[in-house]
């Protein structure tokens, strides 16, 4: 019998070598294997006849090989296969048409339309297929049906996926092979790297694993929750998610909405939310600082304001101030699109802390951004006499020591820095407020790291029955001597759709800046091919002549990084020498050292540079209102979120601004959609939604490996409703108020959570 925790190599058909392949894909136990769900299903119960296929549809066909040949064309080798509707013999009884006429007993009618219905399949570069097919073989083909260019009314599949039925492979007994391939709804798996680990290999191995799976599979979801959600037993769910019953509807399967799939998805989301809920509960129990907000504090805030705040800024400040007044620590997310004016709100909150005799810390994801914040904080706060310091990784050691001492003694009232502040464990005299400026996905990653860490500590403390001191530190910055938890304000410019925000920021209250500061003219976005380069730079020259500045952004720093792609350093030289020799050109990229970067930014800000040639280092937070043009070269190579962030650097002043997306090279259909979205809207939420649709959550937040919620079965876009339900049920479990849920059930769920999270999200080393 296999248990869920049994290592995969005990599953029939998996030897040590294949176990290694699976391990590299994150599958080391039977449970991991069972969570490897099919990415689609094929109805091989009622196969279609070739004559029934329609151009334009995705279809799977069971057919018989007639001829095959390899052609060498001028450009590439082509493999061509022709197939026809199968002639049924006794060895393939499943292919009898369900509509078979009862009167033709003993001579089952074929479902094919006879030998004339033919389908052509073509594989580009198909040399590898040379000896694969024999006439008379049955094959399953899946692909998009197209009309052949050659003969009218001939249909064809280009590069279809295929399986040869009845082909022996591996150790699967003949009987299993037969029953797992045909005559039912068949699961199709993504193959995993090595040649042998194909869809059909998974099919057989998982089939075997399910047959030998122990009858008592542990289910850690409390009874009442199971009942309310109508969840089927876990073991049954595994079985049916892989091997649906004949009666299952294909469209439900493809939409992941059969009861079996729903059960597995809900489970994954439930434990995620359970972890978040636990963290929320823990946070609520901590004691924080009750800041006083009186007329004196209000006056101090008014004094620093360089402009009239927008209604949204006023509302958000009030939400923050109300939190800060409370004795429980504030945990608030401030969400606002690029340019919505988050910085001033952050500084106002800082004033509240400082006027109460506490220190405030403002952390930014990059040095450039930290420096920007430092400069604007000084501009706004210093004349009122506040003491501000900047601490980043590149500050020289001796100076760092001085700054740290200032901070420890409480002299520095506002401390601005990169996350080096976290890394270097700065000690504060009496820290009252931590502001984390995350800006965009970069910060989301950071946040997930912190979230995982906090969760691990959480679990640790539940286990030990005592509160871990590390967990009481806000954003890991050491708290003051009174050991009161500082307030936390997290700022993000990622317009995250609501349900995603619930997951990523589920432990925070949310404020939204949904109004742009006045006096902005909307940005005009245009898209041009790079054959119009001369016009683009002529336009830049005109804007500079009118007293403005420009950014020109490139995807790479050096020429040699990628062939055929314009690089910042090379183009900088080119622009300076040939294209705009009479203008003052600067160069900014990530490989300059911090001092050089600062110097360039300072000169640009001071108007001593007209055109700043740059890479995406400027994508985050840089604020120079006099810039009215942003040229993005090779715009087809940038992600949507990135383009939006980049564009957010302009349109910050009163003058009309222009974003010019220059394409140079092949524009894929997806890139086409991205550029289109950019031209048509500047709404961050709309752009984020499109981005999410185009890329899926994994990519949306950056690379998968970087510690994202790497869900096994859930999909945050598709499963929003289940996520909400999971959140509700998790809250019921943690609150302890639900009388239908017993204490042992709660403990069991928490124990499961611990092992689940630890194994799944790699928390072992932290907890
Ligand atoms: P972000 O939300 O992207 O951090 P910033 O705080 O950098 O935005 O603000 C963008 C620009 O708008 C800055 O130049 C800032 O000085 C200006 N700004 C912010 N709020 C207002 C306001 N209420 N009135 C006028 N200008 C404002
Ligand atoms: Mg900002």
Please give a structural write-up.
This protein has 767 residues and is of the alpha/beta class. The chain folds into four domains: 8-40 and 210-261, no CATH class; 46-96 and 107-182, OB fold (Dihydrolipoamide Acetyltransferase, E2P); 295-513, Rossmann fold (3-Layer(aba) Sandwich), CATH 3.40.50; 523-681, Rossmann fold. The chain is 38% helix and 17% strand. The chain has 24 helices and 21 strands. The chain has a seven-stranded parallel beta sheet with strand order 11-12-10-13-14-9-15, with helices on both faces. Strands 16-21-20-17-19-18 form a six-stranded parallel beta sheet, with helices on both faces. It has a five-stranded mixed barrel with strand order 2-3-4-6-5. Strand 18 (585-588), helix 19 and strand 19 form a beta-alpha-beta unit. Helix 3 crosses helix 4 and helix 21 (669-680) runs antiparallel to helix 22. The longest helix is centred in the middle third of the chain and has 26 residues, at 259-284. The protein starts with 15 loop residues before the first helix and ends in a 7-residue tail after the last helix. The structure holds adenosine-5'-diphosphate and magnesium ion. Magnesium ion is lined by residues 342-343, 621.
């Amino acid at each position: 019998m296999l248990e869920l925790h049994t290592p995969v190599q005990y599953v029939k058909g998996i030897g040590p070598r294949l176990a290694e392949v699976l391990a590299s894909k994150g599958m080391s136990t039977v449970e991991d294997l069972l969570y490897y769900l099919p990415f689609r299903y094929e109805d091989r119960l009622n196969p279609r006849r070739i004559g029934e296929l329609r151009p334009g549809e995705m279809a799977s066909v069971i057919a018989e090989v007639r001829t095959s040949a390899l052609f060498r064309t001028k450009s590439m080798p082509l493999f061509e296969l022709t197939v026809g509707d199968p002639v049924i013999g006794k060895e393939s009884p499943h292919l009898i048409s369900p509509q078979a006429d009862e009167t033709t007993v003993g001579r089952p009618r074929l479902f094919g339309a006879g030998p004339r219905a033919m389908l052509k399949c073509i594989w580009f570069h198909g040399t590898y297929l040379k000896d694969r097919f024999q006439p008379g073989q049955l094959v399953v083909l899946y692909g998009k049906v197209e009309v052949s260019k050659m003969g009218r009314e001939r249909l064809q599949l280009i590069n279809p996926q295929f399986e040869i039925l009845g082909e022996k492979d591996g150790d699967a007994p003949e009987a299993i092979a037969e029953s797992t391939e045909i005559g039912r709804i068949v699961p199709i798996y993504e193959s995993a790297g090595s040649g042998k680990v194909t869809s059909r290999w998974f099919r057989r191995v998982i089939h075997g694993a399910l047959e030998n799976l122990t009858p008592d599979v542990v289910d850690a979801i409390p009874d009442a929750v199971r009942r309310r959600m109508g969840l089927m037993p876990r073991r049954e769910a595994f079985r049916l998610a892989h091997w649906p019953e004949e009666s299952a509807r294909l469209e439900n399967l493809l939409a992941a909405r059969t009861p079996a799939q729903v059960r597995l998805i809900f489970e994954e989301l439930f434990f995620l939310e359970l972890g978040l809920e636990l963290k929320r509960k823990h946070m609520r129990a901590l004691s924080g600082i009750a800041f006083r907000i009186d007329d004196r504090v209000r006056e101090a805030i008014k004094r620093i304001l360089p402009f009239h705040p927008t209604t949204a800024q006023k509302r958000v400040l009030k939400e923050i101030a109300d939190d800060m007044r409370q004795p429980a620590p504030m945990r608030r997310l401030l969400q606002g699109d690029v340019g919505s004016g988050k910085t001033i709100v952050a500084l106002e909150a800082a004033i509240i802390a400082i006027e109460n005799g506490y220190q405030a810390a403002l952390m930014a994801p990059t040095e450039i951004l930290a420096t920007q914040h430092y400069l604007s904080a000084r501009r706004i706060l210093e004349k009122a006499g506040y003491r501000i310091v900047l601490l980043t990784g590149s500050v020289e050691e001796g100076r760092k020591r001085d700054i740290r001492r200032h901070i420890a003694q409480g002299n520095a009232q506002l401390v601005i820095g990169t996350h080096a502040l976290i890394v270097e464990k700065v000690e504060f005299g009496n820290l009252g407020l931590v502001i984390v400026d995350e800006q965009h996905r970069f910060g989301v990653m950071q946040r997930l790291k912190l979230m995982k860490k906090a969760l691990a500590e959480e679990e640790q403390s539940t286990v030990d029955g005592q509160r871990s001191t590390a967990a009481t530190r806000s954003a890991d910055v050491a708290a003051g001597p009174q050991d009161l938890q500082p307030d936390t304000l997290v700022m993000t410019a990622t317009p995250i759709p609501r349900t995603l925000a619930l997951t990523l920021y589920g432990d925070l209250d949310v404020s939204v800046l949904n109004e742009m500061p006045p006096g902005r003219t909307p940005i005009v976005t245009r898209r041009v091919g790079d054959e119009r380069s001369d016009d683009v730079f002529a336009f830049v020259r005109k804007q500079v002549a009118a007293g403005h500045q420009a950014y020109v952004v490139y995807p790479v720093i050096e020429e040699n990084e990628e062939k055929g792609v314009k690089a910042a350093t090379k183009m900088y030289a080119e622009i300076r020498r040939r294209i705009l020799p009479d203008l003052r050109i600067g160069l900014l990229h990530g490989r300059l050292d911090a001092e050089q970067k600062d110097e360039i930014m300072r000169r640009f800000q001071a108007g001593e540079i007209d055109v700043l040639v740059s890479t995406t280092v400027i994508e985050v937070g840089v604020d120079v209102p006099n810039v009215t043009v942003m040229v993005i070269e090779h715009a087809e190579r940038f992600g949507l979120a990135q383009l939006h962030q980049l564009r957010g650097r302009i349109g910050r002043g009163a003058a009309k601004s222009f974003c010019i997306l220059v394409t140079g090279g092949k524009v894929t259909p997806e890139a086409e959609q991205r550029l289109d979205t950019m031209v048509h809207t500047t709404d961050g939420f709309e752009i984020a939604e499109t981005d999410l649709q185009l890329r899926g959550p994994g990519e949306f937040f950056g690379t998968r490996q970087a510690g994202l919620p790497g869900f096994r079965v859930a999909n945050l876009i598709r499963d929003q409703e289940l996520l909400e339900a999971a959140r509700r049920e998790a809250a019921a479990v943690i609150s302890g108020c639900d009388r239908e849920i017993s204490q042992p059930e709660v403990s069991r769920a928490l124990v499961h959570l611990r092992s689940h999270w630890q194994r799944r999200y790699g928390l072992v080393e932290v907890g």
